[in-house]
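Table S2 (continued). Query chain:
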Amino acid sequence: MTAVVVFDLDGTLIDSLADLAAAVNRMLHDQGQASLPQDTIRGFVGNGLPKLVERAMTHCGLEPTLHKDLTQLTLKHYNAGACDQTVVYPGVIQALDELRDMGCALGVCTNKPEAPARHVLGELGLLPYFNTVFGGDTLDIRKPDPEHLHACFKTLQAAGPQIFVGDSEVDAETAQRAQVPFLLFEQGYRKSPVSDMPYTLSYDNSTALPALVRKILTQA
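Corresponding output:
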C-alpha cells in the first residue's frame, strides 16, 4: 500500500519568510511607511498573500480601500525576488526522494498564488517531485476550506490513504475539516504551541517524514 501525500509549501517545504518580509517591507516603503521586523511579519503569514497584506496594512494603519492595489504591488515585489533568500528546509529532498521511491503520489496545496509557488518550486529544484500544485488562486477557495485540499487530492488520481503535511494552524484546521491525517512540521510558522494544535504525528526534521508516513500506512 502507498500513500497520497500533499504538502503545504511555506514553512513546511521551504523557509521563505525573509523574501515574504522583504516584499511586504518594499510595499510599505512605497507608502512611506517604516519597515516591520521579520518576526512581526511572521505572525501575518498563513492565509495567503491578500491576508498577509491586509494584516500588514492594519498593523500600519493604512487605508483599507488600498488593499487590492497594495496586494498587487506586494506580489510584484515578491515575484522580483522570490528566491533571493528562500531555502529548502534540511532533509526535505531526502524525504521526497524516499517517499517517491515508496510509490507515494505527491502534491502541493498552498495559499501562495499558484504561479509564484510553481516558480519557487522550480527554482529550488522541488517541482519535479510533485504531480500537482494547487495555489491560493487555483480555485475560488483556499485553505482552511477543506475543498481546496480535497480538490488537490482528487487531481492526483491516486489510490491509498490521503495525508496532509503542514506547519500552521491553518493547515491543522484544513486537515481536521478534510478528515485526513495531519503531519505537523514543528519548525515552521505556527503561532500556537504544538500541544495546542490538532495533529496525527509531528516532526522537527524532515528526514523523519517517510517513517511517519509508513506508520500511518501500517495503522491504515
